[in-house]
């Protein structure tokens, strides 16, 4: 064990299997060494997971586990080990200190969020952001409403302390505060919650204040189902601020803030140049927005000046640095304005910025491609089949900007030898992002091991993004026997896997004696790649393995696979029949509910689970259509108002049409489109029209598209009913006339 301390940063290369041979007690002791812990936190996740698993074997009591596992590694504790906590002061403080994943903290949020627990911490504002992300309508069902409102306000944090909340959490929060007298005190609540406000309740005199607070919200949080709300927000902002064209003033831009991230290119091109500052903070820009930014920059209407042949340029490396993240989206025409030396220096600087900000390979790949294209535009493409730029060596590869000087792919191919790839694979795949270059790297590696026809395990672990360009034939030459190798290949930061290739890799790993789909493998593979396997393979997953695994997202699976995974999950998490255990079972099982049976969903109705609409709309159609109005009401609980927000979703519309309108009316949320009540007597046309009109309503705040759909559906039904009765009347008259003639 002492030898591990001497490894320092080299511990990152120790395989997971080594830690399975070290007792948990020794690992607990090692965790007390700050220096060791600092280095250990840089190891691959599969190694951290193995480390925590060994610690848990010492004592599997939940409260002992959180005492033994280091705070920064608590994310690796299996969810089922996070149940049954007491509200003991020391337990509450330990839970609050640790780093958690949302799927974990949801399981004990009801323990730490109550008034007694937060008082021990000095108030709700002392709850960590990591803990606050566990707020859901399910987790606060037993918390007093006054305390819930305090928790919501405590989530108003910025910067690195921002509480990351999903749409379903935000809509839940709004439903708790919407009737409060201080709901229009916009500065009390998280900006993201304001995204889901009913705008008709915002006083006209306060609308500017509302949008000023909304300026800090994350507009990318909207799901596709509720994206119409994002459109409605901008329309309301235009009305509030008096915006009548696509030319936004500096004041407009200041008020809109992050809403600028939703604007199309016409606004970006025609607005005050201060819009660039707002766009610089956007999590992403689409092609249209990026093009508009480039057009604005090249127009010379910004503080950065203009670059033309007739006007001396003030653009330099500093200009690029001052643009923040925007250069990430620029095309080659923009980079044509800088010489090669400037682009090299900037790239060296910018790559460090991108790494610090966690920017993915896809975006870095696009950046390098455009810069390379701007260089190639001014240079002749090589037609010789020999290296003229310079042989690629370890020293060449060590340059931060490699392979910048090999903008001609022919030169990269000619100057890179198979031996160099074999000896420097890690360094090469760390720096090379572009697919065409990675294809050459993969080809050279195959060449290096042509004699043995097998690429060794330690090399396979270093393939990185090059692995995504492999074929099944390539994969057949890889040695994949260790969990470390499977983990490195499944690293999502290197890109998504084609299902057929993912299946080939996982199957090759499982073909090794002793290998199975255990909890570590499931976590390593992830839900999307798990769906690539045949259902017969999924049937071999044990209940214990799924029980100890992370919550897996299985939306990519076929319905047959979803059902199989749900059956395993239901048995794995069934546990006790007590209400609390059953509720915990629901929380543990909810990511697998897309394959749930009607019987299971109906069993949740009486448990006050407050199922969110994202889960509800992911259920099988035949399950939803067999739920009554009252069952849906009890199933959704606090989330019931969101049924109206989702009324344009196909599944919701289908369910609504199958229900009696009179029963839908009992929900009190303005849902229309249900079946007319069955009658035993014939009603007059006027009576029918009156009834239809009474059910045709427009719900404020649902967004223009929602209201229009609702109204159109109601009127359409009435018109068809009137036409039917009119036809009967005409037929009756015709028969009578025929009778008279006879």
From TrEMBL:
Question: What Pfam families does the database record attribute to this sequence?
Answer: Mesothelin
Keyword Zinc attributed = no
Subcellular location per UniProt equals: Membrane
- Keyword presence, ATP-binding: no
Name the GO cellular-component terms.
cell surface; membrane
Ranges for region Disordered: 668-716
Q: Where is the signal peptide?
A: 1-16
Which superkingdom is the protein from?
Eukaryota
As for family, the record states: Belongs to the mesothelin family.
Protein name (database record): Mesothelin a
